[in-house]
Structures are given as structure tokens and as C-alpha cells.
Specification:
This protein has 80 residues and is an alpha+beta fold. The chain has 2 helices and 3 strands. Strand 1 and strand 2 form a beta hairpin. The longest helix has 11 residues.
Length: 80
């Protein structure tokens, strides 16, 4: 990952980058002037880890009303 990030930073002539872990991913954003580019790495679970260690820590749950098929717009038509 480090080599890939460094290569992208050089190719893009990035002046700054931000790196963060997001669940099972490493997200990298490269900045150059007013533009930015994103790079995403998937982290594979350690095969020697137990099932509990490989499972997501938290699952995001939505209330039933949040999934009304209208995208939160009250006068939107129903999806096809």
C-alpha cells in the first residue's frame, strides 16, 4: 500500500494527502491545488483471526421510515 500511495502522490504531484480507515477499507485522498483524487484499498481479514475478530464491529441500522423508496422527497414518484 505504501508503495502505491507514494507512486500516486508522485504522479499526481500531490501537495497533501489524507489517509483514514473506514471499516474494512483504507481511504486515501490526494490534494493538488483545488482538485483531489481518491484511492481505496480493501483490507483482507487475517485468516488466523477468529470469526468474531473478522466480523464488523458495528452495523448501521436504519429505521423502516428511512427506506420509503422516495429518497426522502415527499412528492417523488415511486421507483420503477
Amino acid at each position: 500500500m505504501t508503495r502505491t500511495i507514494c507512486n500516486y502522490a508522485g504522479e499526481l504531484q500531490a501537495s497533501r494527502l489524507v489517509l483514514a480507515r473506514a471499516g474494512a477499507y483504507i481511504w486515501v485522498r490526494f490534494f493538488r491545488g483545488a482538485s483531489s483524487r481518491d484511492l481505496l484499498f480493501r483490507i483482507l481479514p487475517d485468516p488466523s483471526a477468529s470469526f468474531v475478530e473478522r466480523s464488523p464491529v458495528r452495523t448501521k441500522a436504519f429505521a423502516a421510515s428511512a427506506d420509503d423508496g422516495k429518497g426522502g422527497v415527499s412528492d417523488a414518484s415511486l421507483p420503477l
